[in-house]
Each structure stands twice: as structure tokens, then as C-alpha cells.
Design a protein that fits this description.
The protein is α+β, with helices and mostly antiparallel strands and about 280 residues long. Helix content is about 30%, strand content about 20%. The chain has two domains: about 10-185, D-amino Acid Aminotransferase, Chain A, domain 1 (2-Layer Sandwich), CATH 3.30.470.30; about 205-280. It is built from seven helices and ten strands. A hairpin with a 5-residue loop joins strand 9 and strand 10 (about 185). The chain is globular. This is RNA ligase domain-containing protein.
Length: about 280
């Protein structure tokens, strides 16, 4: 299935990008490449940048929050109405878990869509069409800083990367693209792939005590209640763990100091169970 092409830096941009026409300037967000496709059966197949996962249990843990988000939010009927064959298109987005930028996680969607591949056209949809489809099927597209800016009015050398839509700070960069499929990225000077991540240190029980806060548990429980879903230990545990992995991904998976997830999961489960037992005393 379709794999997303790498986006060249602005200095290596295809010449045609700036020759004529209009540009879309999209926020480049600091997530992980994520793709999915609705099957005719109604099942959704997921993939990261490099592979597709036919077995849902094989999907890497940092993507679990994104998988749940798509399963919960995707309007399958709207998608079927929008295209003749749902398997003819592949959605591309960013799974928004922590790398270098600490976004405001409470309001940042787990997935931000940025492109859609149409097999029948053997091409990506234009950015305005992709944006409309994402919104129509219940998913949030990446925000556009500008739409339809004429190439004569855009100077990459003098352009300043705007503030991010998802935290109080500069965007990681801007993806510049046109309706013919040419793209380039312009990175903010503060975000040039410098890794200053401080690894997490502590026992599984200490880490669980730090990250499984009562506020986090109550927020998850409230969301389940809002959706009229039972507040069970398993349901709360799964979502709490997904939130922690999402927000602390960079620190949990940091080189040789990666946290051993098995004891951490067990410790998270114990804290969640104890908290819910007290909640219903």
C-alpha cells in the first residue's frame, strides 16, 4: 500500500513548487507518521511510516492512542458516501505523541491528518480537498497557516514560521505545497532535530505513582461516562496507559534507558484499580 514520500527541505524543493500558481502553508507538527485505510468489511487497517499491521496486536504501543482515536471518530458511512471505493484511498496523518515539543495534550487531537492518496487518480488529493474530506469523516486536519498564497508573494528566505496551533510556542515548521503535489518543508530554527530529552528514572511503582494521577483517572472516567460507557478498571487502565505513553513517549523510549514496559504496565494497573476502588467506596 502507498507509503508517504519524504518531504525535502526548502533548499532542495522542486523548482516547480515556486514557478507559478498558489501555495498552501500548513503547520508541520512534531508527531509520528501514521496511515490508515478503511476496508470494505468495515475494519480499519493501520500503519506507521514503514509498515502496515494486519494484526492489530502488533501495532506499536505509542500508536495505541491514535488507533483508538480513529476507531472512535471515523464516520465510516460518511466516508462511503464520499468515495466510490473506500479501499482506493489511504489517509496520512501525524500520531500526536511526545517527541521534542510538549503540546497542550488535552486539546491536541491524537491524530492530525495532512494528506490523502487516491489510487484511482494515482495521486494525492489537492490540499483543499483533503482538508474537506478529513472534516467530513470526523477527523481533524492539520491547520493551514495560509491558503492559496500566490507564489510571487512567498519568499522562503524572509518567511517567519508562525506560532503553533497546539501550544504556546513556534510551530516545528511549515509544509509548503501546491495542488500539483510538489512539497517542501521549512523548519523553525528552534526545532532543528536537537534531542534534549531527559530520560525517565525510577522504579515501575515510582513512575506509576508519578504519572497515574487522580486527575488523570478522573478525566478518563468522566469521558467514559459522557459516552455512556462503563467505568471499569480495564477501560480506565487502557486509556490512562495510552495517555501516559502518548505524553511521555520520548522519555519512556530514550535509547539505552528505555523503560521496561511490562512492570510499568502492571504498576499502572495497580494504581488505577486502587483509585477506582476508593472512588466507589
Amino acid at each position: 500500500m502507498k507509503r508517504y514520500p519524504s518531504i525535502p527541505r526548502i533548499e532542495n524543493a522542486p523548482r516547480e513548487l515556486f514557478d507559478t500558481g498558489h501555495l498552501w502553508l500548513l503547520e508541520k507538527v512534531d508527531g509520528a507518521n501514521f496511515r490508515f485505510q478503511l476496508q470494505r468489511s468495515g475494519r480499519i487497517q493501520f500503519g506507521d511510516r514503514n509498515r502496515w499491521y494486519s494484526d492489530p496486536d502488533a501495532i506499536p504501543e505509542p500508536y495505541h492512542h491514535a488507533v483508538r482515536h480513529v476507531r472512535d471518530q471515523l464516520d465510516r458511512d460518511a466516508l462511503r458516501r464520499a468515495v466510490d471505493d473506500v479501499e482506493s484511498i489511504v489517509f496520512f496523518g501525524e500520531a500526536m505523541h511526545r517527541h521534542a515539543i510538549e503540546y497542550e495534550w488535552d486539546r491536541t487531537p491524537s491524530v492530525l491528518g495532512f494528506d490523502i492518496w487516491a489510487a484511482a487518480k494515482d495521486a494525492f488529493y489537492p490540499p483543499d480537498t483533503a482538508e474537506q474530506i478529513f472534516e467530513r469523516v470526523g477527523l481533524q486536519p492539520v491547520n493551514a497557516f495560509e491558503r492559496e498564497r500566490h507564489t510571487r508573494d512567498f519568499d522562503p528566505e524572509s518567511y517567519t514560521v508562525p506560532q503553533s496551533n497546539w501550544y504556546d510556542g513556534p510551530a516545528e515548521g511549515v509544509v509548503i505545497r501546491n495542488k500539483q503535489g510538489q512539497r517542501a518543508k521549512l523548519l523553525h530554527p528552534d526545532h532543528r532535530e536537537v534531542d534534549e530529552t531527559v530520560p525517565i528514572d525510577g522504579t515501575a511503582s515510582e513512575l506509576a505513582a508519578t504519572y497515574v494521577t487522580q486527575r488523570r483517572i478522573e478525566n478518563v472516567a468522566a469521558k467514559l461516562e459522557d459516552r455512556q460507557q462503563p467505568v471499569t478498571v480495564e477501560a480506565v487502565y487502557e486509556r490512562v496507559l495510552e495517555d501516559i505513553v502518548r505524553e511521555e513517549h520520548a522519555r519512556l523510549s530514550h535509547g539505552n534507558q528505555t523503560v521496561d514496559m511490562e512492570p510499568f504496565r502492571s504498576a499502572v494497573g495497580r494504581v488505577v484499580r486502587q483509585s477506582l476502588e476508593k472512588r466507589y467506596e
